[in-house]
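User: I want to check something. If I give you two sequences, will you return the structure for each one separately, not as a complex?

Assistant: Yes, each is folded on its own. Here is the first sequence with its structure:
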Amino acid sequence: MNRNFSRLFTPLLGLALVIITCVGAWLGPVTVASAETYTIRMGSDSGNLAFEPATLTVKPGDIVQWQNNKLPPHNVIFDGSNVPADTIDLVGELSHSKLMVKPNETYELEITDALAPGEYAYFCAPHRGAGMVGKLIITG
């Protein structure tokens, strides 16, 4: 019985491989969009009160991580007057108002489908007056 199974299984496996190869050739290469994790440093390496990078483009599924770098304390506050209109209600959930003071302390935000494509301005509350502002651009 084992020998009969082997005789039947081997040709079927070969046929399955041929079918998979033909379908793959017909469909062409398949690109899988993968999520990325991006880090924004709070306070530049040179000691400036800035987010680095100041502007970042992301897509749903990506994760943005703000990392305390230089001259703390820092936080991340999204500006309700500078986000897409249909996401104003989410500004409080996006923001991290707690001051981060420890070296390399982080805040992470997953970009979800609930966030409309567009520009999202944010700032560090203690250093906004010094120009510590940033922008996320969310694509569809």
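And separately, the second sequence with its own structure:
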Amino acid sequence: MVGSMRGGYFPQYPHHDNLPDPEIRTFITNFYHATDQPGSDELWISYFTPDAHVVIGGDVGHGEQEIRELRQRMWTTVRERRHTVKKAFPAIFQDPADVRGDECELMLFGEVNLETTDGQSLVVPWAGHAVVKKEVDAVTKEWKFTQYQVWMQNS
């Protein structure tokens, strides 16, 4: 029966669901803290690789300058935001023999409490997909997003 099915019914499953590095937990926590700080634009941008692809709702940024512009647009109608990250589901989709521990995919979900510039208070559920990679340069080794996409539920 399975052999006769065609189409996209057979998803890829992770080889294991453990984080390759516990520092990813700190990276995620610090990222969402920076996300909620209106004056932390450059810090927020530093969480992405220079060629990262970011989609938040209907807004898109590819590369450092577009991500910077996206970040600035995030605050045009929002006075304050506070994320709650409820769960993160890590996975590695590489063959276990090829895993070097320098890349991981995450599905995340939570909610964000917003206060808009016109005084409205909103609670918006969201889900996200991220690919993080350990970037290594002459001085540091740190996790960065190569891809980050967030879907928000409109009430």
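Because they were folded independently, the notes below concern the second chain alone. DSSP finds three helices and six strands in the chain. Strands lie at 48-56, 59-62, 78-91, 103-116, 121-136, 141-152.
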